[in-house]
Amino acid sequence: MTFHDFNLHSSLTESIDMMQYNEPTPVQAQAIPEILSGRDLIGCAQTGTGKTAAYLIPTIQHILDHPKEASQCLILAPTRELAKQIDQQIDGFGYLTGVTSMAIYGGSTGGEVWSRQRNAMENGAEILVATPGRLIAHMRMGYVQLDHIRTLILDEADKMLDMGFFEDIIQIVNELPTDRQTLLFSATMPKKIRLLADRILRDPAEVNIAISRPAEKIDQSAYLVHDHQKIDLMEHILRQMDVQSMIVFTSRRSEVNKIVRAINKLGFQSKGVSSDLDQNAREEVMREFKNGQLPIVVATDVLSRGIDVDNISHVVNYDIPQDAEDYIHRIGRTARAERTGVAITFINGEKQHRVRRIEELMEMELPKLPLPEGFEPGPAYNPEKRSSGAAPNQRRKKKRKPKGPQSEASASAATPAPTATPTAGAAEGEVKKKKKRKKRRKPRPQSNPSSNEQSPS
DNA sequence: AAAAAAC
Hints:
By secondary structure, the chain is an alpha/beta fold. The chain is 35% helix and 14% strand.
């Protein structure tokens, strides 16, 4: 099967060829015909499956068939970086098709960004890619016309609900024509997603490419380390492995700059991305990282989903992600396209119970490697420790130890000089933001007219 | 239980 089988507009087919999409991925093969038919759709698919193109191609086809001078498609995404990336992907299609788009998200300084966004909406950029908060901010100003929106797409819907966007999404949907096509993509299908789908989709088709199993091209392994050993282990990895480019993930914003400084002190070059950094800095770091100028990015889970950067050879989980799903997303940043990648997770003594959940989700064991020579022994592996809440006698599937090549950690002691070359005087964490702790008091009980709760006092 | 997202 090829993209030519979909009978698309010639400029769209040419774009697809130009962007070197060869053969439709499974999501694309299943979703594109359904979306072209005009049906609503629920897509259970992770990033890296070609999901974005799966919804962009038929949507652009529709726009080419029905040219209008108004916005026709609204895409909602959870993070600014993802919105921007989707917008850039549309630009790729727009080169030959002429389809216009605009990313609508907050954080950028300068009122000029605001007016550019406003201008795009008023002049009918055909596709709007927005984070919910900023779109609503524009809507409040009164000039946003959404009555020509024919397609609504929710990308990473589960993440958006996690972030508390349910009400925002409903508020936006209420401004859209009821006669529209709605596409919802989500990595998982919890009840909340079903409820949202029941509310805003009509008789949706379902496409299921739910791979909770990450690509086999990723060489996964883990080390049991004490927290104080982490940076030494990091150094070992950077010096011993052939690191082209790397993302280091941490669950806490407050750790990002610490890790950046520690890595740079070793003579490597890294910069951080998290919501603590202002948007311009975030985007500058991403630009350098995508260009290959910057070899190492240290990030929170803001970058775990969807971000597509070529050539990331290594992902290091400096800690274990909160949600097992996030682990799959994080390591999916490597081994993009035809490449292979290495994912290494640092497990400390306290958060071992999270590992078990990840292994259950993946239905495979995460190989635990012994610490390299010269390291003091790390903590013992005991993932059951904190699981007091779970049913103790629950029978668990025996897991096969995945066979195949062991991690190259030990194998490549003789690696040539790493590409992520140490550089003298690498810029140290330049964005030093003293975090002002907003002491949050218990929220005041709000008078809520719609609730009849009575509290005995 | 932390992250992100509006000014």
